[in-house]
């Protein structure tokens, strides 16, 4: 190992030891971020390793069938709402979940929330051509990621556990209007 490698390794180790509270460290990969949260006798660090395609969670569905010989107007107004929440795969400690959410906030270009409702008040008006059907869905886009975490505890029975996880967080509500 050359002197430069030793210095870089020592600097990285020093940076990780200096982490207190909620700290975000940009990892080498373009979209990866490591976030740590610590308490009196524990430290949890999470790193996003992969961004998975965004998903769309539907909270309200409707359709318009125009049986007329001329164009008509359709109007969607959500009358029910569905809440989409931040979630992490089963078995992840609460302290680690906080670090995962912080990593997602830093590395994703979208604004994310811990929960978001599809809404009651949004409306959308659109033309429906003669003899056609149009679907109207109201939902929330959800950002999805995969990553790894370490959870270390200090004192009697000290140790470290590592685990892989998947997580998702809502980012924005939207109408989708499309033909059959």
Tell me what you see in this structure:
There is one protein chain. The model is unreliable at 1-31 (pLDDT under 50). The relative contact order is 0.24. The protein is built from 2 helices and 10 strands. A 6-stranded antiparallel beta sheet has the order 1-2-3-9-10-6. The chain has a two-stranded antiparallel ribbon with strand order 4-8. It has a two-stranded antiparallel ribbon with strand order 5-7. By secondary structure, the chain is of the alpha+beta class. It is rod-shaped and about 80 Å long.
Show the helix and strand layout.
Layout lengths: L2 H15 L5 E4 L6 E6 L3 E25 L5 E6 L5 E3 L1 E2 L5 H14 L7 E3 L5 E6 L3 E22 L5 E21 L1
Antiparallel strand pairs: 1-2, 2-3, 3-9, 4-8, 5-7, 6-10, 9-10
Provide the descriptors you would attach to this structure in a database record.
180 residues, disordered N terminus, alpha+beta, 16% helix, 6-stranded antiparallel sheet
Helix fraction by DSSP (H/I, runs of at least 4): 10-25%
SSE string: HEEEEEEHEEEE
Computed CA radius of gyration, to the nearest angstrom? 23 Å
Beta fraction = over 45%
Helix segment count? Answer: 2
In short:
By secondary structure, the chain is α+β, with helices and mostly antiparallel strands. The protein is 16% helix and 54% strand.
